[in-house]
TrEMBL record:
Key word Transferase present: yes
Tagged with keyword Transferase: yes
Name of the molecule in the record: Ecdysteroid UDP-glucosyltransferase
InterPro entries listed in its UniProt record: UDP-glycosyltransferase, UDP_glucos_trans
Keywords: Glycosyltransferase, Signal, Transferase
Regions crossing the membrane: none
Protein family: Belongs to the UDP-glycosyltransferase family.
Secretion signal, residue range per the UniProt entry: 1-19
Top-level lineage group: Eukaryota
GO molecular function terms noted in the UniProt entry: UDP-glycosyltransferase activity
Organism of this sequence: Camponotus floridanus (Florida carpenter ant)
Length: 234
């Protein structure tokens, strides 16, 4: 089994495999990871491939030649998802000589999903988010696959930034750490800091606003998601 280590993501799979059907297995429920993985799989569809994608984030609108294997709502350890009915169905349905030409998966802490390559008798492309210090010919660095030049800001966010005469601070802990779950004492310290800079506006990512401690100063805008690249490029 040929193992290809890919940093971040690839949009050059046509240089690796001559086939037309790809299985993507992305067991992490982190949206931060999924943003790049999604762009990779959509990019492959645009290049003429058919993809089947194991994901917690199915497409809202159907895409031709893109099939979701939906894990949404599953809260388990990554390897424990191997017991998910959808994963069982996938394993049992496909013979060893499967219709897939390649498997793309993520190396998320544990390597349990590499077994799909052996089970399906196909090559594997592994996506990893950390940086290797020693690169070789089977490691390809591709950054920024997910960045879109035409990702417009929502009107209310655009207005907020345009009216920020003294600058704006983008404040986030990512998608895996939720500020609303922090102890009250820590949140109050953040609030006190924001009040000291009321002339500067703040954009703060909060997954569930209703769970956040009240008392946030008016110079802070809360959203469950900001288009981060577009915000930072302003």
């Amino acid at each position: 089994m040929k193992l290809l280590l890919i940093l971040h993501a690839i949009l050059i799979c046509n240089q690796i495999v001559d086939g037309h059907r790809i299985l993507g297995i992305f067991p992490s429920n982190s949206r931060n990871y999924w943003i790049m993985q999604e762009e990779l799989m959509k990019g492959l569809v645009k290049r003429g491939y058919q993809v089947d994608v194991v994901t917690h984030f199915p497409q809202k609108n159907p895409i031709p030649n893109y099939t979701d294997i939906n894990l949404a709502g599953s809260i388990r350890e990554v390897c424990q998802l191997m017991d998910h009915p959808k994963i069982h169905e996938l394993i049992k349905k496909l013979p060893q000589n499967s219709p897939f030409d390649i498997v793309i998966t993520e190396m998320y802490i544990v390597p349990c999903y590499l077994a799909f390559g052996r089970h399906l008798n196909v090559s594997i492309v592994v996506m990893v988010a950390s940086v290797f210090h020693l690169l070789n010919k089977v490691v390809i660095e591709v950054g920024g696959v997910h960045i879109k030049d035409d990702d417009p800001l929502p009107p209310e966010v655009q207005k907020w930034l345009d009216e920020s005469k003294n600058g704006c601070i983008y404040f986030t802990f990512g998608s895996m750490v939720r500020i609303e779950t922090f102890p009250k004492e820590i949140i109050e310290q953040f609030y006190a800091s924001f009040e000291k800079i009321t002339s500067v506006r703040v954009q703060m990512k909060v997954a569930k606003k209703e769970n956040l401690l009240p008392g946030l100063s008016k110079n802070v805008m809360m959203q469950s998601r900001f288009p981060q690249i577009s915000v930072l490029s302003k």
